[in-house]
Amino acid sequence: MKTTLLSFLLCYYFIYHTLAYAICLQDQQSLLLQLKNNLTFDPQYSTKLKLWNENITCCDWSGVRCDNVGHVIGLDLRGEEICGSFDNATSLLGLFLNSLSNLTHLTSLDLSYNNLSGQIHGLFLNSMSNLTHLTYLDFSHNNLSGEILSSLKTLPSLKLIDLSFNRLSGSLQLNEVSKLRNLTTLDLSYNHISIDMNVANVSLIPNFTYLGLASCNLKSFPSFLINQSKLFYLDLSNNQIQGKIPNWIWKLQNLEKLNISHNFLTNLEAFQSLTSNLLVLDLHHNKLQGSIHVFPEYAYFLDYSNNNFSTVPQYNGGDLPILEFLSFSKNNLHGSIPDYLCNASQLQILDISFNNFSGTIPPCLLTMTSYLEVLDLRNNSLTGPIPDTFPKFCHVSRLNFHGNQLQGPIPWSLSHCSSLEVLDIGSNQIFDHFPCFLNEIPTLSVLVLRNNKFHGSIECSQNKPWKSIQIVDIAFNNFNGKLPTQYFTTWERMLSDEDVARDINYNMSQDYPYYHDSITVTCKGQRQDLVKILTIFKAIDFSFNSFEGPIPLSLMGFKALYVLNFSNNGLTGEIPSSIGNMKQLESLDFSNNSLVGEIPVQLASLSFLSDLNISLNHLVGKIPTGTQLQSFPASSFEGNDGLYGPPLIEKQDGERKDLHPQPTCESIVCSIEWNFLSIELGFVFGLGMIIGPIMFWKKWRVAYWKLADRILCKIFPWMHLEYETHRGKTYTVLRW
């Protein structure tokens, strides 16, 4: 028995290995090696071609598929960084096509995501009339040009053609497609093709299941689609389709994914019922108006953004069981936030920003952050407090409440959101101290508290490392006190300039585009929408508060910082010479403080600096010459006690002259509010004007007279300030 079993196993082993080695025919292996030799590719990025060698049977090569006899039937060279041109037969790619034509049993060919170029019409026709069994052809995401489709009609077995994201041109006659009777998938998106929709006999058009005609210069909905009963994917985005969305499109019963974004559609035809089972509906970036009628109950992606809709959809159903993405952003929607949104138990992204929603934030919406990852409510008219209903296991990563009328403090339950990366509650009416509990969130990258009613010190009793923080904007509040030196030593991402440039964004699926974060920042004196938050972009804006004391030296170690704004505070001391360490700095604003001393020459070594403002301080001395500082306007330096030199221009009589008009009292920021005048105030003021300067030393005397000038200027509007230079020193003089 044992001998019989052993004999059987040996026989099986022999037969198996004989068949295994016979599975790849020798001529097929030789052809593939010849193909490899006729291709130019980067071995650093190759995961398939670089492993092809004669010591391994070709049917075991990555990217190669064989039939039972040993013929190569599938070739997948996707993303191999193959480069070259098909322009002539003697090129490497020309030889590649000639070799390829000998693989007569080939059924699938994938050369997508490479660097192929040239016009391949003629070569393709001559080199591939032998591939009669080819059913799958993918040349997408290359740089191919020419009119290839007329060549493909000679391959009658084709079921899938993907030529998207190339440079193909010319006009496509749909009658040409009718000759490919087996074709079910066609994607010509993002080329330079114009499609002629005149079809003599619609019944001859193949029954598509997948049709991509994005960016194909379409002016209207193709009428042949009415009869496409098997169609489940349709992409007509980025065309010039105008007018109404036809009613028949909602009656394509097998249609699951519809993208008609980036057109000029204005409204929906009279809507009766939705018979299709839409899973994905993308209508964004059109001119659609009125009420949102179409709201598929079983969709997982719905995008109505960038239109003129005025009324949210009426939904009387129960749960929205699989909805993952919903955007109403940038419309004219009004009223309260719909309660049925809280029934979407799978929702991951909710964006209702840039509308006219009013009322309070539904508490259940914040309870949903146990699974909701992005919540964007910015630029509406929401009032009341932020509900203190963040769950214990909060998983939200992006919260944006910017530009509403929210009041009260930041809810403490927000500390449960341990995965929070972006928090923007700027431009509201939040009244609170600095939320020190945010220091407990190690993932926080972006914090915007701008333009609220925050007050007090920003110093926290426990400063845990903010390893990920890269944008901090707390401008236009009432924060005060000294800037704590140790506070900044924990901001680790600011210290290193070795970050790789990558977007902070959210990717739900390859079926539709990325969802990009967007915040509003001040950079180079201008408010800008930062649509993509890059990990390399780092900014600090503490302007328009009441901070005092010196600029912390620990800040000077922020080698990766792009924007630093401490303007309109009460900072004192000198500009640290170690500011030269901030090599990436592009925008620096220290204006309207009480900084003293000379401009450090190290400031001129910041080669990326393109925006500078150190005006309205007490800086003295000559502006360092022979540096890029002379490229900034005089307004960057004006309003200092003793600063001179280019770009501040000297008069011939030695009196300094700015490139801009002399400052008036209105241009000097004063913190004095004149609420009353009395005899007592006049007596004290007069006594101080005469006796005060005699009692105090020079520094106080200069500051005192400076304040006196400003007060007199406030009382007598016809008085003004001028700068005068005498014996190398610059003085501020009050003139009638």
Outline the secondary-structure elements.
Elements: H1 2-22, H2 26-37, E1 64-66, E2 72-76, E3 83-85, H3 92-100, E4 108-110, E5 115-119, H4 121-127, E6 136-138, E7 143-146, H5 149-152, E8 160-162, E9 167-173, H6 174-177, E10 185-187, E11 192-196, E12 210-212, E13 233-235, E14 242-245, E15 257-259, E16 264-268, E17 280-282, E18 289-291, E19 301-303, E20 308-311, E21 325-327, E22 334-335, E23 349-351, E24 356-359, H7 363-367, E25 374-376, E26 381-385, E27 398-400, E28 405-408, E29 422-424, E30 429-430, E31 446-448, E32 455-456, E33 471-473, E34 478-482, H8 485-488, H9 492-495, E35 503-506, E36 515-516, E37 519-523, E38 526-530, E39 533-534, E40 539-541, E41 546-549, E42 563-565, E43 570-571, E44 587-589, E45 596-597, E46 611-613, E47 618-622, E48 642-644, E49 649-650, E50 656-657, H10 679-695, H11 698-715, E51 720-726, E52 729-735
Parallel strand pairs: 2-4, 3-5, 4-6, 5-7, 6-8, 7-9, 8-10, 9-11, 10-12, 12-13, 13-15, 14-16, 15-17, 17-19, 18-20, 19-21, 21-23, 22-24, 23-25, 24-26, 25-27, 26-28, 27-29, 28-30, 29-31, 31-33, 32-34, 33-40, 34-41, 40-42, 41-43, 42-44, 44-46, 45-47, 47-48
Antiparallel strand pairs: 1-2, 35-36, 35-39, 37-38, 49-50, 51-52
Helix pairs in contact: 2-3, 3-4, 10-11
